Amino acid sequence: MTNGPDDSPADAGELARFVERFALHLVESGIPRMPARVFGSLLVAEEGKRTAGELAQSLNVSPAAVSGAVRYLTQVGLVVRARDPGERRDHYEVTDDLWYEAFAHRDKVLEQWSTVMTEGAKILGPHTKAGWRLDQSRQFFDFLRDELPTLMGRWREYQRSHTEEPGG
Does 148 lie in the same domain as 79? Predict the structure, then answer.
């Protein structure tokens, strides 16, 4: 099934329903609705990229709605903004390894959260329930930071042994 402008109405409708279902799951996990829809639209694009105009058309929304959505998605690291050589318009894209990249770059965020939890725990004191809770949060973030490189390495090993490129 293709997903470009030449889709038959049945294919386009089925794809649109999938994007909306996927977006609803993202919304339930805390991602705002329009960024979730834009992200879903990019995921199903064969090349993983679309211009703002193409996104607006595929989702039947205004360019302004797309602008805010892609701003959010680029800030959280799920989408990149790029321009092909010789092109005048930017496009937004998801990389083939987007989930890996999104999680691999969380180290800095986890470090920041750990630091702020440490500060809060010190302010509240280790013998208070709130101070203990903040320290437990800090320990959790530190644990994730320590384990993330190993987990990401295991993913690369798994990927090498279980993944075939399209058409391969």
Answer: no
